[in-house]
Write a structure and sequence with these properties.
Length: 864
């Protein structure tokens, strides 16, 4: 009977694992070569997708596209200030539904790396720390400091005396409390791999090694405490610390960086992990748009696996959007696209996504050898090397040319191989090249936005359809204002409840009335507007390199009483650096009136100022669009500072991603149906210099190497998730700080135009060559493939086709001196009417239009 009961339980467990959405039931450990899952070493490809930077409705599609791109793992931070905005009050709803996100990854059959931190950095406001931490007396962040590790609590029922006693004797580590809460939440949902869930790794702290020296002798005890605390939580999976050379056992130290091939773990018992490999770089207000050529990224990834790596993560694989006031900085833009393989709107970015998918396939062909042994590295010449993984059954080779200018031909195993500069060739059998990182076999796509004016799109309220508005009062207008002598630091005053803090001062002048004076203002940042007697007199802003604002504003004062109102504003709180929580913001002075008639100056810094936290419109609930007395009966005020605008509109038909184009506006924040789509700032123009028409992928990449959009607004388009919209009766609300014309605003719809591919005869064959039975693959030559971007579409037009020496890029291909006359008709016959097509790139298909020349096939197609 006992035997039957055991057999029944085993059968039940098997059925649960088979029929559950995803059941990993794994024991996860590690050794010097790899993460070990249920006794088997694994080569793992990972990508970062941050759940709050998209919506729950977007998550399944993003996760599936990551899986289709060859990923095994989804990596995400956990954002403390999102989940505990008020001490002891938690939020795990909507975009903060961490459990739903993790379960969604499991449903897709992927693993999860949960980076709890709880310090995240991530260009997230305040690095992910909640602001209430800042106000614990005596606190110091990220160091061996008891207040940071403890929380003072009162038990109920209590008296003031017993509460004080409890506070002294019931201390819990704040960091440990939140970390333990997340771990317990995951355990309750059986989400750790040991419970049958997808989580195979967790992270404690984040890039502390970059700032450790600034914290002196207290740094090492803090790291040791954090490691001990994390491992004591008994997750059943390994913990990592990135950028932490002295991570104590059993914590795995990992690499973050543009290139991590030269990284070595701090113990021979630990594997080589790369937790952040940058797809591109972040966008700042006032900066040009950075991007990273996929050839260089593929080179970096191949080099990492060539030299012993077994887990690599893209930061970001989908970047998404900094909705609301979540962006850190200061000056980090609302878009967090990051030139990722999946763009901000959820579209696959080609050829980056496709080429990386091919890289992943090639690496997976090598997995058995990679996990079995260490590589043997030999030189093939100057800046040329071979890495060979050899077992009794397997032989894998990586051939690398790390010269950034010269191509080379090398001899290896008795064969000759051409290696373009700054590239790696992957040979899963030590003979045949299935991929070279510099040769792209993947198609590319042209995406563009088509715009419609809001008036064309929607039905507007009021007797005269159009915008309605409310003017925000200048200066002090709320009952909770207060007065203090001296200038207050902003973050300590507002606790980041709002971007805005008013500083107001009344002065009496007689002798100097009418004089042309200058108001000198110094601020820690990030921007400010100065109003004199109710009129905007001038503004100032910092930038990503120096957030401080020092301005000199010419003003004219009147006889008698004058009012100086200064509106200071933040643009995302500091998120990184040693002691970043102490950097501060706001007008800390001096504030000086210069140029008086007698040559003297007046210093107002120590005067009694009146303060107001936030805007009256915020308190009235204007962002929802349902509160307030909106004016739509008279002329719309344009280019007026401190104005709230509202319009009702209908959503564009279809399911294509949409954005709002804020051309014509100055700076502010926008809400759609009460949801903040983030700060907008189209008037902050990027520098005119620094961009090039193309970027050479050869040679080391950095964030300033490849830039576009110079001399233009850093960001004009702002993502509006489809799930936030109804077919009709949507409400857009704006708060405009400096003045703009809302009638210029339009709705932008993102569409895929053409699909293109350009493949050379010299390209390696497709990386799935050995697993395919197609006729073209068996020929062993390169293949050009095209696929319609949307389901249920077919290729209807071949806009361009040339076999020979075509020039240009997708959208502007042109014929070269050598061109097959049959190319267009052959491609049309192979592709039109199909959702996808593949064509062998060889003279066998197209004939030979010019002997002795390496030829290529370029095609541009459109689908409907």
């Amino acid at each position: 009977m006992a035997m039957r009961r055991t057999q029944f339980l085993l059968l039940l467990l098997w059925l649960l694992c088979v029929y559950a959405p995803a059941c990993f039931c794994a024991n996860v450990t590690y050794d010097h070569r790899a993460l070990v899952i249920d006794g088997k070493r694994r080569v793992l490809i990972s990508g970062s997708i941050h759940y709050p930077r998209s919506t729950p409705e977007m998550w399944p599609d993003l996760i599936q596209k990551a899986k289709d791109g060859g990923l095994d793992v989804i990596e995400t931070y956990v954002f403390w200030n999102l989940h505990e905005p008020v001490q002891g009050q938690y939020n795990f709803e909507g975009r903060g539904d961490l459990v739903k996100f993790v379960k969604g990854v499991a449903t897709a059959g992927l693993y999860v790396h949960l980076r709890i931190g709880p310090y995240a950095c991530a260009e997230w406001n305040y690095g992910g720390f909640p602001l209430w931490l800042h106000f614990i007396p005596g606190i110091q962040f990220r160091t061996d400091n008891e207040p940071f590790k403890v929380i003072l609590v009162c038990l109920s029922p209590v008296t003031p005396t017993s509460c004080y006693f409890v506070k002294l004797n019931c201390l819990q580590a704040e960091m440990q409390r939140f970390t333990a809460k997340i771990v317990d939440m995951m355990k309750q949902e059986n989400l750790y791999a040991s419970q049958g869930g997808p989580i195979i790794l967790s992270q404690i702290e984040n890039e502390y090694g970059n700032v450790e020296g600034a914290y002196g002798p207290a740094a090492v005890p803090y790291i040791n405490w954090a490691a001990s605390m994390a491992t004591s939580l008994d997750t059943g999976v390994p913990w990592v610390m990135c950028q932490q050379e002295n991570a104590p056992d059993p914590i795995i130290n990992t690499c973050n960086g543009i290139y991590c091939d030269q990284f070595t773990p701090n113990s021979k018992a630990k594997p080589k992990f790369w937790t952040e490999g940058y797809n591109g770089w972040l966008l700042y207000f006032g900066g040009a748009v950075p991007y990273r050529p996929v050839e260089d990224l593929a080179f970096a990834v191949a080099r990492f696996f060539q030299l012993g790596g077994t887990l690599q993560n893209y930061y970001m694989y989908h970047g998404g959007t900094n909705f609301g006031r979540t962006s850190g900085g200061p000056f980090v833009a609302t878009s967090y696209d990051y030139d990722a393989a999946i763009d901000e709107y959820g579209f696959i970015r080609q050829p980056k996504w496709g080429h990386l998918k091919d890289v992943h396939k090639a690496i997976k062909l090598c997995e058995e050898a990679l996990i079995a042994t260490d590589p043997t590295i030999t030189s093939l010449g100057s800046n040329l090397e071979a890495a060979v993984y050899k077992t009794e059954a397997e032989c894998v080779a990586f051939l690398a040319n790390i010269d950034n200018t010269s191509d080379a031909t090398v001899k290896f195993n008795g064969n000759s191989y051409n290696l373009p500069a700054w590239s790696v060739s992957i040979l899963p059998d030590c003979k045949n090249v299935v991929l070279n990182t510099a040769k792209i076999n993947s198609e590319s796509m042209i995406s563009s936005f088509t715009t419609e004016s809001l008036k064309e799109v929607g039905s507007l309220e009021g007797p005269s359809p159009g915008w309605s508005w409310i003017s925000e009062p200048i200066g002090i207008s709320k009952a909770d204002s207060f007065s203090r002598f001296g200038l207050l630091e902003q973050i300590n005053t507002t606790a980041d409840r709002s971007d805005y803090l008013w500083y107001s001062l009344r002065i009496d002048l007689e002798d100097d009335a009418g004089a042309q004076t200058v108001l000198h203002i110094e601020s820690l940042g990030h921007a400010l507007h100065a109003f004199i007697n109710g009129k905007l007199a001038g503004s100032g802003k910092g930038n990503r390199d120096n957030s401080k604002v020092n301005v000199e504003i010419p003003i004219t004062l009147v006889a008698g009483k004058n009012t100086i109102d200064l509106l200071s504003l933040t643009v995302g709180l500091q998120h990184f650096g040693p002691f970043f929580d102490t950097w501060g913001a706001g007008i800390t002075g001096p504030v000086i009136l210069k140029g008086l008639k007698n040559g003297s100056t007046l210093d107002f810094s120590s005067k009694q100022w009146t303060y107001q936290i936030g805007l009256k419109g915020e308190d009235l609930g204007l962002p929802s669009g349902t509160s307030g007395q909106w004016n739509s009966q008279s002329t719309l005020p344009k280019n007026q500072p401190l104005t709230w605008y509202k319009i009702n509109f209908s959503a564009p038909s279809g399911n294509d991603p949409i954005a709002i184009d804020f051309t014509g506006m100055g700076k502010g924040e926008a809400w759609v149906n009460g949801q903040s789509i983030g700060r907008y700032w189209p008037t902050y123009i990027s520098p005119i210099d620094g961009c090039t028409s193309s970027c050479n992928y050869r040679g080391p990449y950095d964030s300033s190497k490849c830039l576009k959009n110079c001399g233009k607004p850093s960001q004009t388009l702002y993502h509006v998730p489809r799930s936030w919209l109804q077919p009709d009766s949507n409400t857009l609300v704006l708060f405009e700080e400096s003045g703009g014309d809302p009638t210029q605003i339009s709705i932008a719809i993102k569409l895929i135009g053409s699909s293109c591919s350009h493949v050379s005869e010299s390209h390696p064959p497709p990386v799935d060559l050995w697993n395919s039975d197609t006729e073209s693959d068996r020929s062993g030559g390169p293949v050009l493939s095209l696929e319609c971007p949307y389901p249920n579409e077919v290729i209807t037009t071949i806009k361009f086709a040339s076999f020979g020496t075509p020039h240009g890029n997708c959208g502007n291909f042109s014929h070269g001196d050598c061109s097959s006359k049959q190319a267009l008709s052959i491609v049309q016959k192979a592709c039109i009417g199909s959702s996808s097509c593949s064509i062998g790139v060889s003279i066998n298909t197209f004939g030979d239009p010019c002997g002795g020349v390496t030829k290529s096939l370029a095609v541009e197609a459109s689908c409907t």
